[in-house]
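P.,

For your records, the input lines for the assembly:
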Amino acid sequence: MASASIPARITMPAEARRGEIIEIRVLARHAMDRAIDAPGLTPVPRKIIHTLRVTYDGAEILHMDLSPGIAANPYVAFTTVATTTGELVFEWLEDGGAVYERRQMLTVT
Amino acid sequence: MTLPAPRIGLTRRTALAAGAAALLPAATVADAQPAHRETMAAVERSVLAGRTPLASGVTLDMPTLSENGNSVDLMIRIDSPMSGEDHVTAIHVLADKNPFPRVATFRIGPRAGRAEVGTRIRLAETQTIVVLAETSRGTVHRGAREVIVILGACVDGG
Amino acid sequence: MRHLVVLAATLMLGATASAGEVRAPASFLSPDLRALQDDPSRHPGWLWVDGGEALWREAPRSGRPSCEGCHGPIDGMRGVAARYPAVASDGALLNLEARIERCRTDNQQAPAFGYESEALLSLTAAIALRSRGLPVAVETEGAAAQHLAAGKRFYETRQGQLNLSCGQCHDENVGRRLRGDVISSGVGTGFPAYRLEWNTLGSLHRRLRACSLGVRATQLPYGAYDYVALELYLAARARGLPVESPGIRR
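Structure tokens returned:
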């Protein structure tokens, strides 16, 4: 399936020294709809981002499973060691099969 | 959208599986929810897999009083050298009194440099948040914090 | 008590200038939420700001210029939000949302976004951000005076089944707790704001509708004149306080 874009903000340095540990903060626009299945209410299927996967220069550096217990507009912070100049690929996997993708370059000096 | 017609030589089951995979890449398995609510004890048991957790090495940074259960900040640090031989492989966040106690799992490795992750979670009510961290050496570290969820007065049902 | 209300109301006439009792909304936030409000890497409201900045540059299908085509880069909007609501040339009192909608329908000849739509919230947030930290500086005299008076009347009128005026909470009980909330001075300098209760960005009128509901009064429609006039009165009360948009609110 082709990757769609998602309103997201990725906060990380554009440049880092080799071996430096950088912090990456990620915000994405998503309602993280919990399933509604209660008497008297119209049933609504769950629609959340269930996985956030991040690769750096082709190798996975974060694989996060999310649940309906994650707040709307999910925020995730993590770290990685700057190893080589390369692309970080962020993939959000949504219930129903949609995959959203954003890319960010990291230049290592 | 229709499933592709089964090709000759494939069993019905493999053809259906292949068709489903083409329609829903990577999502089908993760979408599956347990029919019944998984209990906190069951979640802990499945993560621990017979291991006894160590009550050390976990820093769980959360407000003691959460101002709104819709959005509670949480920052987790695990004491670990994060080397090739000795690193954290998974950090699980569990919330006993949420509809689904398994809130999040972060899978990381030595490339993280530090075992430090953060997110924002929903809390249905005042409860204890449990963090379980698995390491490459097979140990599990456990930390817990009670968070009081305050109810606001000026709510309007969203 | 009745005397205090009258006294407070009387003081309020002069208070728009001195604003001795009216405190910035951020001062009622916990340190955690204040830090969040000031941190674009964690503040979800910035997702809307990004969207608004993209809309600013995007030409409508009508073939008319984009916002940027007439106004230049959005940074040129510095200070604008601090002056709204304001009276337009035809005498209508417009808040920032209404000003944007009018520009869109009249100048861009494009369909209105609609109050509380993602697009309007985004553009409003992106423009309001350009006034962040600047003092609220609404015009209250001349053509604005009658609207200010209308807003003040609305503020002071007891409403709803609880028979409360705005000031009974936001003047007389400022700083006191109402369940888990701290009662603020009730100014709108952080809107549009990301409210945790909503899980989304929302306008001041959405917040005012929640107030109306809270006192069991009729919720007015978005953009209703009484709410816009009240918005002007609240801005007059907040004169000199910094714009906080996009704010974080509980």
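Two observations worth noting. Chain A touches chain B through 37 residues (CB under 8 Å). Strands of chain A lie at 8-11, 15-16, 21-28, 49-56, 59-66, 75-81, 86-94, 99-108.

Regards
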